[in-house]
Amino acid sequence: MQAAVLAGPGQVRLEDVARPEPGPGQLRIRLEGCGVCASNLTPWAGPEWMQFPTPPGDLGHEGWGIVDALGEGVTGFSVGDRVAALSYKSYAEYDLAEQDNVVRLPDSLAGQPFPGEPLGCAMNIFRRAGIEAGQTVAIIGIGFLGAILTRLAADAGARVIAISRRPFSLDLARRMGAAEVIPMEDHHAIIEQVKTLTGGQFCDRVIEAVGKQWPLDLAGELTRERGRLIVAGYHQDGPRQVNMWLWNWRGIDVINAHERDPKVYMAGIREAVEAVASGRLDPSGLYTHRFPLSRLDEALNATRDRPDGFLKALVTFP
Q1: Which residues form the Enoyl reductase (ER) domain (predicted)?
Q2: Residue 227 lies in a domain
């Protein structure tokens, strides 16, 4: 099979490698595609801790495709099933997954991309946020994750204030149900605008979905007394500082919404399958760019540079 290998900072090459064989309890999946995650960008930049070359297919963890082979003891799946999986070497034509980390996709999703991990991640973040009807919810950063959370929060009856840098993202937030949109330009101006919109109370829930210091600072400022700040951004480029005085004074709850328990991950993916299959959630318009595996470098660069109109890249296979 062909698999992508990161050869160095900003360098990727395709290699012909042996097709993996499923062990006991594993499935082999012939991949149709894999989403490109922003968490790839720090390894792509080549920090000191990164080791090159990477194992074939490494960093790809948003794959979906067709079950191609079953390992010993696998039950509940058949060759030919279309599935989404929680696996970790999906920048390749084939990947292996534990049977507990695979979910079958219904026929109603035939032909549709389904990067299960980020969709499941959004469902889990939404659950942990505890959003209810009548609340005011600020979402900082309207990328793929922020857009889905906007839709889920609006559908739950919350008033959503979307804050993002790009006009494209703010237009998208309105389409996803945001009641108000604010350009992410001036820190103090944003605070004053949200204060005005909320009658001086600020927000019941604030979701930080960027993964940088300034949005985290801003999130604390926008959270009301005894409100909840949900960290959904992936902070992987170094330590962060927080305004502990403000957090103490307002008595806010802080939720780090990143899951590491595979069972919780899979619960979110199953919930996402149900939401998309039922029509409650339609992410199809959020997959804005598609690349073959041979152009993975372009997909990663687009994810980093976010050209106008970009939201989510998929690597797809013929």
Answers
A1: 8-315
A2: yes
